[in-house]
Specification:
The protein is an alpha/beta fold and about 375 residues long. Helices cover about 45% and strands about 15% of the residues. It has a six-stranded mixed sheet with strand order 7-6-8-5-9-11, with helices on one face. Strands 2-1-3-10-4 form a five-stranded mixed sheet, with helices on both faces. α3 packs antiparallel against α12, α8 crosses α14 and α14 runs antiparallel to α15. The longest helix is centred in the C-terminal third of the chain and has 24 residues.
Length: about 375
C-alpha cells in the first residue's frame, strides 16, 4: 500500500514538472545569432550639403585718404561685413582712386563706378541749389539735428523727391556714411575783424556759402582739397575753408603762416551719403539690403569718435602755437543775415527749394525747443 502511494506521488511530480517546462518561455538566443538573423538595414544616405552662401562684392569710393573722414567710412565698412556675417565683402577706395575726388556722382551716372560716398555740396550744378540744404549748409543744423531731420523729420522723403526731379538712375541708401561736427570757419592771412576784410579776397569755399562769400565781396575760388596748402602758400588764394579740425590738422595747415578762425558758421556739419546705381542696388540679395541700410544709418555711433578726434586736433593746434581767432559777434550776426538773404532769394527762384527749406526750419524750430530752452548751455565756463 505504501509503495503504491509513493509511486503515485512520484508520477504526479513528473507530470507537473513536464507541464511547467512546457509553459516556460523560450531561452533568449545569443546576440550574435540575433544579429545574424536580423535583416540587413539599408545604409543611410547623407543629406546633400547646403550650397555655400553667395558673397556680395561691394566696391565703392569715398573721401580722400589721410584724415578722419575716410576713417569713419571704414567703420561703416566694418559694420557691413560684421552684420552680414561675411556675406558682404567691402572694398573701399579713397577719393581719386577710381575717379576724380568729388566727382563720384558723375561717375555713378556714367556707370564708371557702382557705389560711392559723396556729398550734395559737390553737385549743386546737377541738382540745383536746393541740394545744398541736404548737406553742410551755412548756419544750418548741427550733426544731431541733421540726423534727427533725416531719421524722423522727413528729410529722406525730400531727398527722394529731389532725386526723382533730377531724373537720375542713382539712389541714396540708408542714412549717412560719415557725419561730423562743424568745419572750421577758415584760415586767413590776418584776423577777420569786420565784413570789409572779405572785400576783394581770393577765397576758397564751397556750397551755398559761396553765394554768401560773393555778397561779402570776395572772389570765390574752387579748388580741390589737395591743392589748398600750396595755393595759399603761393598767394593764389588769400583765405580758405576746408574741413573739421582733425582734417585741417591732417592737411598740415598748422604749418602755414595763417590765422585759424572759429566758429564754423559756413558749414555746421560735415557728412556724405551712400549712393548707388539703381541697377546695382537691384542686384543686391534682398536679405542683405536691410543690412546695408541699417549700417549706413548708424553714423551717429561714430560721431562721438570723430568729435573727439576734432577735440584732439584743437589741442594740438594750441600746443603748436597756432593763432586761433574768434569771429566778432557782430560779424557773426552779419554773416547770419546774409545767409538768410541767400535762402530768401533761392526760395523765390525755386518752389522746391522753398519747400525743403521751410520743412527743415519747421523741424528745427520744434527740435530746438528742448535744445535751447531745457538743455543747459555752459558756454560761460569757457569764455
Amino acid at each position: 500500500m505504501e509503495k503504491r502511494i509513493l509511486m503515485l506521488v512520484l508520477s504526479v511530480a513528473v507530470i507537473a514538472s513536464m507541464l511547467l517546462a512546457g509553459c516556460a518561455p523560450e531561452a533568449a538566443a545569443p546576440e550574435a545569432e540575433e544579429e545574424a538573423q536580423a535583416p540587413e538595414e539599408e545604409e543611410e544616405q547623407a543629406a546633400p550639403a547646403a550650397p555655400e552662401a553667395e558673397v556680395y562684392e561691394m566696391d565703392f569710393q569715398a573721401w580722400p585718404s589721410g584724415g578722419s573722414y575716410l576713417e569713419q567710412v571704414k567703420m561703416f565698412c566694418g559694420r557691413v561685413e560684421e552684420m552680414s556675417g561675411g556675406r558682404i565683402d567691402v572694398t573701399l577706395h579713397a577719393g581719386g582712386e577710381l575717379c576724380p575726388s568729388t566727382k563720384e556722382f558723375e561717375a555713378l551716372e556714367s556707370g564708371a563706378i557702382d557705389w560711392a560716398g559723396t556729398c550734395y555740396n559737390f553737385n549743386l550744378g546737377r541738382f540745383g541749389k536746393v541740394a545744398g540744404l541736404f548737406g553742410a549748409l551755412p548756419c544750418g543744423p548741427n550733426p544731431t539735428e541733421l540726423y534727427g531731420w533725416l531719421e524722423i523729420g522727413g528729410e529722406r522723403e525730400l531727398i527722394n523727391e529731389c532725386m526723382a526731379k533730377s531724373d537720375t538712375d542713382v539712389i541714396v541708401v540708408g542714412g549717412m556714411l560719415h557725419l561730423a561736427g562743424a568745419e572750421s570757419f577758415g584760415w586767413f592771412k590776418e584776423p577777420i575783424t569786420s565784413l570789409s576784410d572779405f572785400d576783394g579776397m581770393k577765397y576758397r569755399c564751397m556750397g551755398l556759402y559761396g553765394d554768401v562769400a560773393q555778397k561779402l565781396g570776395a572772389s570765390v575760388v574752387n579748388l580741390p582739397g589737395g591743392e589748398i596748402y600750396q595755393a595759399f602758400e603761393r598767394g593764389v588764394i588769400d583765405g580758405f575753408e576746408y574741413c573739421t579740425p582733425s582734417m585741417d590738422y591732417a592737411a598740415g595747415f598748422q604749418d602755414l603762416d595763417a590765422v585759424m578762425h572759429e566758429p564754423g558758421m559756413q558749414s555746421t556739419n560735415a557728412m556724405c551719403r551712400l549712393m548707388v546705381r539703381q541697377d546695382t542696388w537691384n542686384e543686391v540679395p534682398d536679405d542683405l539690403k536691410p543690412i546695408i541700410e541699417a549700417a549706413s544709418s548708424m553714423s551717429m555711433i561714430d560721431h562721438a569718435w570723430i568729435h573727439m578726434e576734432d577735440a584732439a586736433a584743437m589741442l594740438k593746434f594750441k600746443a603748436e602755437g597756432v593763432e586761433i581767432a574768434t569771429l566778432p559777434e557782430d560779424v557773426q550776426a552779419e554773416i547770419y543775415n546774409l545767409v538768410q538773404e541767400v535762402h530768401a532769394e533761392n526760395s523765390a527762384a525755386d518752389p522746391f527749394y522753398k519747400k525743403v527749406y521751410d520743412a527743415q526750419q519747421e523741424f528745427l524750430n520744434t527740435y530746438r525747443i528742448v535744445e535751447y530752452t531745457v538743455q543747459p548751455s555752459y558756454e560761460w565756463l569757457y569764455e
